[in-house]
Here is the input.
Amino acid sequence: MSNAGNPGGDEPGERSDFIRSLIRQDIADGTYGGRVQTRFPPEPNGYLHIGHAKSICLNFDLAAEFGGTCNLRFDDTNPETERADFVAAIEEDIAWLGYESDRGTLYASDYFEQLYQWAEDLIGAGLAYVDDQDAEAISENRGSFTEPGTDSPWRNRAPEENLDLFRRMRAGEFADGERVLRARIDMAHENMLMRDPVLYRIRHASHHRTGDQWCIYPTYDWAHGQSDAVEGVTNSICTLEFDAHRPLYDWFLDHLDLPGDRPRQTEFARLNITHAVLSKRRLLELVDEGHVDGWDDPRMPTLRGLRRRGFPPQAIREFCRHVGVARVDGTVEVELLESFVRRELNEVALRRMAVLNPLRLVIENYPEGQVEMREAGNNPEDPSAGARQVPFSGELYIERDDFMLDPPPKFYRLAPGREVRLRSGYFVTCTGVDTDADGNVTEVRCTYDPETGSGQAPDGRKVKATIHWVSAAHALDGRAVLYERLFTVPHPGADGADPMESLDPHSAQLIEGARFEPAMADIAPGQVVQFERLGYFARDPDTPDLFHRTVGLRDEWARIQRRQGKK
Here is the structure.
């Protein structure tokens, strides 16, 4: 963990923001007895994305910094959209990020009976009533930002009648949508969420945990604060869209007999990323309409997609900590996230040679049939990573882009009559080429200088380029996918436009016929390596010969900073 000014590393440091200041003041005042407890409360109706990562890191990090606890609680109050496989995926993603709930996995459904009893308490106190209006009528009668709402015809039912109807709702006597339970607050309140919000609705649907035990389910607003109170949460950290919900959160807690400390909700700015959409509805649209290959497509901003692409969890954590906590929503450049990924991978990723667009190179003066092993370092940033042996022979593959028959100025790679260095190999000079009927180069012929195996020429001559290669006889066949931005514009959907209009249909380019050095056979599924001179690539967890480009080698964030005149 690091402070915002020092984004490297993973050790805790003294950081300051308005949430931490509130907690420090609480500790100094003895509020909650100096206790700090947070929670991460996802709805199990989809997969987590990079925006959720910020909330995960914040809640778990706050608990760790202040010697408190943080738990995972699923707010599973809508059986029609929630599934057990979403629960398992979210648990897996949180563990992958490096966090663990201090109390195992908790669920709002654990408290359904307590929530129901509290609802009966509100009814008995005249603070809740059963409404026979349907959802359309309730919405229409809520009013607007400039007009007050209209009282329900059933708002003044006697508590005894409301209690009887509510119990019959639970017993399954009524159809879906026939009745709801509403809080009796103020239909003229300036905050429309306070205009007699719905607490329970009838849903004859099987719940992924409770089965058919219930046919009435609490709304999120009714379950949220009370679940926090049951668990002993001190700090309910929410994103800014819940700011308007806080008066309702407090109203419920004010009118209930709580088992312990009263939790406090605090809002912070959510994380938005350029060239991406983080709306669940839009992400579902991408999947359902076939724009991507599922929720774990490497172009998706889901944690599963980033994981498949090879983003290290450490880099995501450090990125979230660097972004920090603010009170105003904003958007962060995706290049900043990629810079954290690149920095992490530069330190830990093994180096390997891969040729994505092969062109055969024949060394005419190399002894026929000879194979020698050349030593190549595994990671220059980590001496402990050691070295590997790479087979070298008289027939190699090089990148087609590393040769030009008629090179322009400032092209320093291989060309007729030009000498370059083969990485971890020798100096070679192009002596000729073979072409097909259309004039395309099919083979490059060279000679090598056997005295340059050290990487230097004995006579002191220099070359202007070093290129990578793979021995043709020893090469492994493989494939790679190169990714561009899924959306061509930084802010998809800005100014009311449909974000899908800026989708790039060519954002994934599959490269067939790549050639890899033999050591690539030992790369584990999901492991990321640096293809020298090409970028960082992750081995697909399910398809061994397929590699996804995680990020390129060029630091685009540094370029953006220079353009903005920042260091």
User: Anything to note?
Assistant: Residues 1-12 have pLDDT under 50 and may be disordered.
